[in-house]
Request: fold
Amino acid sequence: MTIRPVRAGSAPPCAEDGAVTSPIKEPAHVATANDTASQHHEWWRDAVIYQVYPRSFADGDGDGVGDLAGVRQHLPYLAELGVDALWFSPWYASPQADAGYDVADYRRIDPMFGDLSEAGALIAEAHELGLRIVVDIVPNHVSDQHAWFREAREAGPGAEARDLFWFRPGRGTDGELPPNEWQSVFGGPAWTRTANPDGTPGEWYLHLFAPEQPDLNWNNPKVREEHESVLRFWFDLGADGVRIDSATMPAKDPELPDFDPASPPVPHPYIDRDDVHSIYRAWREVAAAYSPPRALIGEVWLADPVRFAHYLRPDEMHTAFNFDYLNSPWDPAALRSVIDATFDAHASVGAAPTWVLSNHDVTRHVTRYGRADSSYGHALRQHGTSTDLALGTRRARAALLLALALPGGHYIYQGEELGLWEVEDIPAERRQDPIFHRTGGTDIGRDGCRVPLPWSGQEPPFGFSPAGASAPPWLPQPADWADHTAEAQDGRADSMLGFYRTALAGRRAEQGLHNEEFTWLPSDDPGVLAFERGAGFVCVANLSAAPAALPADTEVVLASGPEVDVTARVLPPDTSVWLRRVRG
Ligand code: NOJ
Reply:
């Protein structure tokens, strides 16, 4: 038996330790455990955080795009679901070239979503319901419509305003070639040429994503001051934390050297450079100055667990998304090895792990888990490959119980609780993701996981928009979501929604799941992952296609499928159970 060295008490003391007054009302149905992380200021250590993708959650005003009014209407649904916090993908003023990840003004809400007073009301209402709020901050870039970039573009070469970005003259006889060969993450060159004030071709600017997302120069102190001020703005409005977008990318090698993408140099010219950490150390000081301290949650896509853990040192971020877990195939050995590597990396810095199955950038896991190759990689979305959705759904249920039983925080992407799958048949002319357009459709992009949620009714818009809406949902919903609406699943314990509610309530109430004890249990069956947490709580996941044995002297607390045979002690394929030890 192995006890992993990941314990709440092992976190090094930091400035945040101290008296707490929280604006949060703890939900009335928190059953036990004065020591649950959700009840003290390090709530992120074991919170369940639900990602709201505002464009696709609920449309209050009938324009076919989700908005804050829609979210406010459904806050009771989210509280009843049993999550602890809501993370909002960007809701700021934005031309929406990358669905809001191109921010024009952090201090305004996009009119399509509402306004600032509505955001304040939403935050207050969520707090009343015991839900914390996390907002998205995008440090690597802004919109090309941001006041800074407009000024820089108009000012011309040599202007101080240009130093906030990466403007450079081109190569070639007339500057007709980009300053280097860097490629955009979304496809095509990472540089766009500007015109001089007199209309002649001018300098180029760097954009690691779309041309509408110019990269900021973090060597300029004004960029740092502005972002720290933006953090305070949202913390003062009541945000309990921030999710940090593309967190490994803001620091650049100022020489902007060319490199071979097949074997990039170390350090990389723009990914995970050592100087990026000074940004988050400063942000930690901002977050720590609040009572209770605010949380910093990083989007850190890095293969190297040691480098990943650097972002979670005691004076940097509090937690980060575990993409290795998301990427892993539905395979016991692969998942076990990711779980072990996750514990090791986090233990090294005293941070709490997270468990992530889906988000707005990746193929929904009901679909992934229904494929022969259930692993995930951006480069290979496996769009259109044969998918068994019944199998994917069964595995998604098993995956939830497995992940919820692991120590750490858990993320739920909206619609996951309805068992939604990736929508693969969106016509090309309706697709909106810049990845689809910039790759000429070679990469199908992320629209398939962003389709507006089905709430009620028998046909689109499935209650996403109110009756009499002036426009259809911004992405088309599949007709066969009629039996996947929240309304159709409500009150049915066997539905995915019913199962999520039961599992989340069970996790909240289960004392053994609110400390960081974890022990692998021996198993002769290579298809099984079994572990014990505190207070005699055991989780067994059968990830194989064959039945497995249930451990002796346990009773079933919750199962992901209906066919667990407690008498014959048989756990069917692709099924997880929560068990409690009983005396033999
Ligand atoms: C990561 C976000 O999750 C993604 O949606 C966005 O396109 C890029 N960062 C650029 O901001």
In short: The domain at 20-139+222-253+267-500 is CATH 3.20.20.80 (TIM Barrel). Residues 98, 101, 138, 209, 245-246, 299, 360-361 surround 1-deoxynojirimycin (CB under 6 Å). The chain has three domains: 20-139+222-253+267-500, 147-206, 514-581.
